[in-house]
Amino acid sequence: MQESQLARTRRARRVDRLLTERYPDARCELDFRNPLELLIATVLSAQTTDVRVNATTPEVFDRWPDAAAMAGADLRDLEDVLHPVGFYRAKAQAVVGIGAALVERFGGQVPRRLEDLVTLPGVGRKTANVVLGNAFGVPGIAVDTHVQRLSQRLGYTTSEDPVVIEAELGALLERREWTMASHRLIFHGRRTCFARRPACGACPVAALCPSAGIGETDPIKAAAMLKG
Fold it and tell me: Which of 62, 66, 77, 144 is catalytic?
């Protein structure tokens, strides 16, 4: 039987409640002290781990603490510092470009509107929603690889388009939960619902998941797979 939108909404909210119980400490795992640091850290997190970004950003923010300093950074120096996070040349260009754009168009401050954030170099909707939700308290769904994978496995969407996924997931969840629901899905994707082989036998939402059983179903073996 095809699931109605109402039934899917109820299921999605039940899943989110169960993930809240499993991951009460779900949060943004990037270290930051202000909106600019979160913005830069999120841009640097592409194609690498939060752990590696967190090990790199203290030097970045110490040497280039504000938008003006970033705009005037020597590219070679910045590239050297960013080397551990990968794609360091493109990321260095993005950091300098973001600094310049913030100085030229936003008085050196990170804007509070998605429409403005996505005009910055290297900033898409995912990064903008991370900043809005975690630095400014504006609800947003950040569709990274984990959110995309889990939204598909849970039957919330069949789309591969992050913009479509963001809209369809947003329609299922209460707006006030968007930011934290994103964190909970990311935590679940990193700790239980792995890309290659999910730990289905130790999953708190297996009974509500149409993809349950695609991974390890033995409870003991599945529990041994869990991370974090």
Answer: 144
Distances (CA, A) of 86 to 24, 82, 121: 31, 7, 17
Looking at residue 218, its amino acid is D
> For residues 115 and 70, what is the distance between their CA atoms, to the nearest angstrom?
22
Active site annotation includes 126: yes
28 labelled ligand-binding = no
Catalytic residue among 50, 62, 126, 227: 126
Question: Who's near 86: CB < 8 A, 6+ residues apart?
Answer: 47, 48
Q: Give the helix, strand, coil percentages of the chain, each rounded to 5.
A: 60, 0, 40
Over residues 182-224, the pLDDT tens digits come to 999 999 999 999 999 999 999 999 999 999 999 999 999 999 9
Cα separation values, 211 from 14, 118, 182, 199, 219, Å: 16, 34, 19, 12, 16
